[in-house]
């Protein structure tokens, strides 16, 4: 399994705990996909296609992030099949293969994690000492980040990743809440899921760009879809789901430094 998180001590323990919670969600999802697959194989409707697609979509975006790329790959295939079924271009029987493959990928991830957890438990040395928190990049210890994603499996992991470096990170679930928070207390960086409920990430970004001051805030957009033209903005970065947490932290650090350098240059003038 990929060593998907850098670090040790208390920070690493937190990531393991979040990953364990994710595996519990996978176990519940496995039962859902097993039932849906059995229904599809018998020619029945596998359940509410829209609810099923939402679950599959979340796994497509989060599997690799938690170190399970096979789950993401199978989920993307199942998502395409469900889109075809919803549009009437594919019947229930045609869904059976992709749903079965997704169920098997999820089940394999759960079993693999259990095996590795047992080995890790045997190797682990009992110690009450905690490793010190990783140092934030010089000059950025007090940076404030607004993280907007409606999928807790993604937002929890990113919150933990940024917390390791001492960043103040506020987690929000929809675009309207995000805009209210941003206007009330301007952050140093925004991390924005493109597919938000109530008010989409695209709408949030467009509203930010229409404001002279808010448009200066650097933004990282997370999405499983290909980037659009508005990603050409200088202070907007695009990261495709699924992603590794350290990639997001690295991009955020670079944007914060660039913004800090720009502000220093403006003061010098």
TrEMBL record:
<protein>
    <submittedName>
        <fullName>Response regulator</fullName>
    </submittedName>
</protein>
<dbReference type="GO" id="GO:0004672">
    <property type="term" value="F:protein kinase activity"/>
</dbReference>
<keyword id="KW-0902">Two-component regulatory system</keyword>
<dbReference type="InterPro" id="IPR011006">
    <property type="entry name" value="CheY-like_superfamily"/>
</dbReference>
<dbReference type="InterPro" id="IPR008207">
    <property type="entry name" value="Sig_transdc_His_kin_Hpt_dom"/>
</dbReference>
<dbReference type="InterPro" id="IPR001789">
    <property type="entry name" value="Sig_transdc_resp-reg_receiver"/>
</dbReference>
<dbReference type="InterPro" id="IPR050595">
    <property type="entry name" value="Bact_response_regulator"/>
</dbReference>
<dbReference type="InterPro" id="IPR036641">
    <property type="entry name" value="HPT_dom_sf"/>
</dbReference>
<feature type="modified residue" description="4-aspartylphosphate">
    <location>
        <position position="193"/>
    </location>
</feature>
<feature type="domain" description="HPt">
    <location>
        <begin position="11"/>
        <end position="113"/>
    </location>
</feature>
<dbReference type="Pfam" id="PF00072">
    <property type="entry name" value="Response_reg"/>
</dbReference>
<feature type="modified residue" description="Phosphohistidine">
    <location>
        <position position="57"/>
    </location>
</feature>
<keyword id="KW-0597">Phosphoprotein</keyword>
<feature type="domain" description="Response regulatory">
    <location>
        <begin position="144"/>
        <end position="256"/>
    </location>
</feature>
<dbReference type="GO" id="GO:0000160">
    <property type="term" value="P:phosphorelay signal transduction system"/>
</dbReference>
């Amino acid at each position: 399994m990929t060593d998907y998180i850098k670090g040790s001590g208390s920070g690493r323990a937190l990531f393991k705990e979040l990953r364990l919670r994710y595996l519990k969600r996978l176990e519940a999802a496995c039962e859902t996909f097993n039932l849906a697959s059995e229904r599809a194989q018998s020619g029945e409707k596998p359940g509410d296609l829209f609810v099923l697609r939402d679950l599959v979509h979340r796994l497509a975006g989060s599997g690799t992030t938690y170190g399970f790329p096979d789950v993401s790959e199978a989920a993307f295939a199942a998502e395409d099949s469900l889109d075809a079924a919803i549009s009437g271009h594919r019947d229930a029987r045609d869904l059976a293969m992709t749903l079965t493959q997704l169920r098997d990928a999820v089940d394999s991830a759960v079993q693999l994690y259990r095996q590795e957890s047992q080995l890790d438990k045997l190797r682990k040395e009992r110690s009450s000492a905690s490793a010190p928190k990783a140092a934030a990049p010089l000059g950025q210890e007090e940076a404030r980040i607004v993280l907007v994603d409606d999928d807790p499996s993604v937002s929890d992991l990113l919150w933990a990743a940024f917390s390791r470096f001492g960043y103040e990170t506020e987690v929000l679930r929809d675009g309207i809440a995000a805009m209210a928070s941003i206007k009330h207390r301007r952050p140093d960086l925004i991390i924005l899921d493109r597919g938000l409920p109530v008010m989409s990430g695209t709408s949030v970004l467009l509203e930010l760009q229409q404001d002279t001051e808010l448009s200066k805030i650097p933004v990282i957009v997370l999405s499983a879809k290909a980037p659009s033209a508005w990603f050409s903005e200088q202070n907007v970065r695009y990261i495709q789901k699924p992603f590794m947490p350290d990639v997001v932290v690295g991009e955020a650090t670079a944007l914060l430094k660039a913004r800090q350098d720009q502000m220093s240059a403006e003061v010098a003038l």
